[in-house]
């Protein structure tokens, strides 16, 4: 089968690999029907994810059809359409039982697919703990509608949940990339008083204006003054940092009012500094990622009800055999790209 492979820092290649096989009774083999490229894949390519293993198939955003299940799997059957969760989790350890599935203590727990074990920018993928890591797609929900549920939409849903957004809040979302838009969609479900999106890309700001006209927008240079002038208490009640830029972490806490919640979802290429003397007295509460992707069934229900729609994010489509071209486009952020759908060969 075709599989996009992490060869070494700065180098991915499309290779022929054997189809994956069941290894554990809780495994499932999924035929990928639609995948995508995530910014986290670029972090692997740039060498910013030390735990990523050269030789693995990359990719962790995908939907597909169950082809085979292990002997311990009773909740899934061949032919089921499923979302694949970005997190691998056993469902039984302390952290899983408390909903902190990103911190699963299994050796393959957390972000494994496309990082430490073979992922889904391929024709087939083996999913460990498939009874936890696969979620049935409801009838009437398309692959395109479900594509982002297991990763960036789960991230936006989780980030909004832990940010404790209330109807009286002014919420600042820093970053209008794919995860930022998913966070915006989930924040809209909470109906806060005001949402402000900060983004430097004119194309992405225009995307927000066109699709979510009820949302205020600003640029990083003007963000602190804009937020202060559109807030009741000198800053945002909740700040969700999704951009991961060189200065966006500082921007997040600077734009927060005293005693605000600052949620950091972004994955940075280099360490960030927490300058406590500069923020002394603001009494901020920081919450940090990565995602606990345990709300996929709820998200799919909301999609089926028409309350969430991420299909406008799919701006480009490529077949798997042109995935090099898709990566170049996605990394360059050219041609108005937001998300790229990758289509494996029909079987």
UniProtKB/TrEMBL annotation:
Keyword Zinc: yes
Every Alcohol dehydrogenase-like N-terminal domain range: 25-132
Keywords (A to Z) from UniProt: Metal-binding, Oxidoreductase, Zinc
GO terms for MF: oxidoreductase activity; zinc ion binding
InterPro entries: ADH-like_C, ADH-like_N, ADH_Zn_CS, GroES-like_sf, NAD(P)-bd_dom_sf
Cofactor(s) needed: Zn(2+)
UniProt KW Thylakoid keyword: no
A Pfam family this chain is assigned to: ADH_N
Residue span, Alcohol dehydrogenase-like C-terminal domain: 184-288
Family that this chain belongs to: Belongs to the zinc-containing alcohol dehydrogenase family.
Protein name: Zinc-type alcohol dehydrogenase
């Amino acid at each position: 089968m075709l599989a996009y492979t992490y060869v070494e820092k700065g180098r991915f290649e499309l290779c022929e690999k054997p189809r994956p096989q069941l290894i554990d009774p809780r495994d499932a083999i999924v035929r990928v029907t639609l995948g995508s490229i995530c910014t986290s894949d670029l972090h692997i390519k740039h060498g910013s994810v030390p735990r990523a293993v050269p030789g693995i198939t990359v990719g962790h955003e995908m939907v597909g059809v169950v082809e085979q299940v292990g002997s311990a799997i009773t909740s899934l059957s061949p032919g089921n359409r499923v979302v694949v969760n970005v997190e691998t989790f056993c469902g039984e350890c302390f952290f899983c039982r408390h909903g902190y599935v990103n911190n699963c203590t299994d050796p393959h727990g957390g972000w494994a697919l496309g990082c430490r074990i073979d992922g889904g920018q391929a024709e087939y993928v083996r999913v460990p703990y498939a009874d936890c890591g696969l979620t049935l797609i409801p009838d009437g929900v398309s692959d395109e509608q479900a594509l982002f549920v297991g990763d960036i939409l789960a991230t936006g849903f989780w980030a909004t949940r832990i940010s404790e957004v209330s109807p009286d809040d002014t919420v600042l979302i820093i970053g209008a990339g794919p995860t930022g838009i998913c966070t915006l969609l989930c924040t809209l479900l909470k109906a806060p008083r005001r949402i402000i999106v900060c983004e430097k890309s004119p194309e992405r700001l225009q995307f927000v204006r066109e699709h979510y006209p009820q949302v205020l927008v600003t640029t990083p240079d003007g963000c602190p003054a804009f937020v202060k002038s559109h807030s009741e208490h000198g800053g945002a009640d909740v700040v969700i940092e999704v951009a991961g830029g060189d200065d966006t972490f500082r921007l997040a806490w600077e734009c927060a009012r005293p005693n605000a919640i600052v949620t950091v979802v972004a994955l940075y290429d280099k360490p960030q500094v927490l300058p406590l003397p500069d923020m002394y007295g603001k009494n901020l509460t920081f919450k940090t990622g990565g995602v606990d992707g345990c709300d996929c069934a709820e998200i799919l229900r909301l999609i089926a009800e028409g309350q969430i729609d991420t299909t406008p994010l799919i701006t480009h489509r490529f077949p798997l055999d042109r995935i090099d071209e898709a990566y170049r486009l996605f990394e360059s952020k050219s041609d108005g790209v937001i998300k790229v759908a990758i289509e494996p060969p029909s079987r």
